[in-house]
Amino acid sequence: MAKIAFILLCHRDPEAIVRQAERLSATGDCVAIHFDASAPAAAFATLERGVASNPNVVLARRRVKCGWGEWSLVRATLNAVEAAVDAFPRATHFYMLSGDCRPIKSADHAHAFLDGRDVDYVESFDFMTSDWIKTGMKEDRLIYRHIFNERTAKGLFYTSLAIQRRLGLTRAVPADIEVMIGSQWWCLRRATVESILAFCRERRDVIRFFSTTWIPDETFFQTLVRHLVPRREIDTRTLTFLMFTDYGMPATFYDDHHDLLISQDFLFARKISPEATELKDRLDSLWTSGRTGFPIAGDGRRLFTFLTQRGREGRRFARRFWERSATLGRDRELVVLVCKKYHVAKRLAQALRDHQVIPAVDYLFDEEDTPLPDMGGIESTLGKRHRHLRALLRMLFRQIGSDRMAICIDPSNFDLLQDFHGDRATVKTLVIDCDYDEAYLEGHATRIGLIGAETPRTTIDRLMPTVAQDFASETLRIREADLPGIHRISQGADPEANAAVMALVFGCDAPTALALAETPYLFDD
């Protein structure tokens, strides 16, 4: 049965580290701790006293001062690994953690998971050809020597780099090494760890090379595992759930993220907020609970993106100048049907066509398969339609042979609506308010990938009010935007009241407007 030796790097809060080590080792696993040499001596003494009576916890006696992006982080990891290998001869797996990590499964589940496959879990992707590095330096991390810390000595770091570039002081990667890159949160088998330690003793040239690369904790172990272990015995994934915001910073989890975390297909998660005491307690208890059978939803990253984007307004990129200057035409009239329930707006659009009130097009900016005439390819993808929206609409007016047209859009496309109302054409907006029951909200969340078949009921129940509020805020923003020509009909209103609004919006007579309002099954799901 798997027995895990956790490699724990930390630099503060010794009392919390003691509690973390106690929980991790309570199930028969063990912990090797490297405590940053930059920390106060009193803090290390507190840690020593706290773990002294626990035979399943060992401290790395060779401590180094760690700095982000430096070799010191790799050296600290190696020191802790060496201590673990010596102290825990029965450990089968070595799992890299930080003080911000917590289990999101039980120890029983983790042991069974590791027993299930004889592989190493480490992200290990080709440094040069993969897209793991999204921005910033890539090859320069390796071919130049980095001896200053980029965060604490930024001026020296970039001056040294500039001088090396100017003088052409590049170096080669060791000939027999193919550099890999990936997350530093790995789980390796004992044989792999022992091979790495032996390699480090024998290949001082490789150590010298990596010791002056930039951010070597993302390349050193990832490269050596691929060099020493057959490819079939490597699963290029991390078992630690982590996410990054759109600013490139690690996402932080709080007390209300418990259900989201335990439904992910990982064993641990980082980073847990220091203030999330309830979450930490619940996850620590989960580790020793003996629980098995975790439903896996795997929706964490999509759900996180959805929730963190709520409330953000504006666009990241400005509209191109030819889009700003183009116009639909002063003599044209555009009626925009705004509705979250697509089938409702589509039924009304069909009724407009059936009664020959006005040509109507379905969700051309929201659904790729909306039927459109051939317009030279500008209509072929949603991306092209959004990039050239006024040009698209001008061509569409010409294709249908009318100066009046209705289109359907999702209320989340507020920027489109603002753009339409900024045109010299006559623009009217009909907001269609609908009722949303729990089944519809869950169906919507499923369609956009927020929840899946295995998402826990508690997560769904907690998410649904957010989705409902999202719907309401989208419509409210339109109604409060002080745009001209905003009109509203609603599911709960009498057909006569809705008909009066439609007569005004579509410019049709009262009987036709009432026929539109009484369209069979207009608001039915």
- Please state roughly what percent of the residues sit in beta strands, choosing from under 5%, 5-15%, 15-25%, 25-35%, 35-45% or over 45%: 5-15%
pLDDT averaged over residues: 89
Give the overall silhouette.
elongated
Largest sheet: 5 strands, mixed
Q: Helical content, roughly? A: 40-55%
Number of helices: 21
The total count of strands amounts to 17
Structural class: alpha/beta
Strands ordered across the widest β-sheet: 3-2-1-4-9
Rounded to an integer in angstroms, the radius of gyration calculated over CA atoms is 30 Å
Report the end-to-end length measured between terminal Cα atoms: 53 Å
Low-confidence segments: 310-325
Q: Can you walk me through this structure?
A:
- With 525 residues, the protein is an alpha/beta fold.
- It is built from 21 helices and 17 strands.
- Helix 1 runs parallel beside helix 2 and helix 18 packs across helix 19.
Explain briefly what this protein structure is.
The protein is of the alpha/beta class.
Attribute tags:
42% helix; 17 strands; 525 residues; alpha/beta; 21 helices; five-stranded mixed sheet
Topology:
Layout: E1 4-10, H1 14-25, E2 30-35, H2 41-51, E3 57-59, H3 71-87, E4 93-98, E5 102-103, H4 107-116, E6 120-121, E7 125-126, H5 140-143, H6 154-167, E8 180-181, E9 187-189, H7 190-202, H8 204-211, H9 220-228, E10 234-235, E11 240-241, H10 258-262, E12 268-269, H11 277-287, H12 300-309, H13 321-325, E13 333-338, H14 342-354, E14 360-361, H15 382-387, H16 389-400, E15 404-409, H17 414-421, E16 426-433, H18 438-447, H19 457-479, E17 486-490, H20 495-506, H21 510-517
Parallel strand pairs: 1-2, 1-4, 2-3, 6-10, 11-12, 13-15, 13-16, 14-15, 16-17
Antiparallel strand pairs: 4-9, 5-12, 7-8
